[in-house]
């Protein structure tokens, strides 16, 4: 091989090594920054929190009372998931900034609503003064499979601009339900014809 070919390969190897180093650093940062919780971990946290909260506010309740409350919460959660069709599959949060009266957290959510998947990333800014606590959503990014539906893209853009998650989830639930109906209807016609 001539020197020019060797130099090209050496340059390519150097670039790949740098890329590997950057990806390794990103991976390490991601591992340190992100805290993902499984369903079991979430339920264990809920149980632990309930025990602490109930112990502080009402004294010691019997395990059967706590179990009944937990079952009630699980029933409510199941009802809400069936009613809205929204199921969260992953959540992570990272505290970006924390001071005496200001906290900024970065959240990542992913999930499904009927047959549509979605991902959200946003920052939650909480400010506290003597009277109350206010929370504002900033830097909202929504990734959703919308196909070629320009109305959905417009809606997502508007939601990202205004940072209104409640409106997003209400609209997503309704849209995804009808999207699923349309999908099944078109599948029916494809099978028939």
From TrEMBL:
Pfam families: CENP-P (PF13096)
Protein origin, superkingdom: Eukaryota
Native species: Gavia stellata (Red-throated diver)
GO cellular component: chromosome, centromeric region; nucleus
A Gene Ontology biological process term: CENP-A containing chromatin assembly
Coiled coil: 6-33
Protein name: Centromere protein P
Record key words, sorted: Coiled coil
């Amino acid at each position: 091989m001539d020197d020019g070919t060797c130099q090209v390969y050496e340059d390519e190897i150097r670039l790949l090594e740098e890329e590997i180093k950057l990806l390794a650093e990103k991976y390490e940062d991601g591992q340190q920054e992100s805290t993902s919780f499984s369903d079991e971990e979430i339920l264990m946290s809920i149980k632990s929190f309930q025990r602490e909260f109930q112990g502080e506010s009402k004294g010691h309740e019997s395990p059967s009372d706590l179990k009944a409350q937990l079952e009630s919460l699980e029933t409510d959660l199941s009802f809400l998931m069936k009613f809205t069709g929204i199921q969260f599959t992953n959540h992570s949060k990272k505290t970006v900034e924390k001071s005496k009266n200001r906290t900024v957290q970065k959240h990542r959510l992913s999930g499904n609503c009927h047959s549509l998947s979605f991902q959200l990333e946003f920052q939650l800014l909480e400010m506290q003064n003597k009277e109350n606590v206010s929370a504002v959503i900033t830097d909202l990014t929504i990734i959703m499979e919308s196909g070629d539906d320009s109305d959905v893209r417009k809606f997502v853009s508007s939601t990202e601009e205004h940072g209104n998650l409640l409106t997003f989830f209400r609209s997503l639930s309704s849209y995804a339900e009808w999207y699923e109906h349309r999908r099944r209807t078109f599948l029916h016609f494809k099978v028939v014809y």
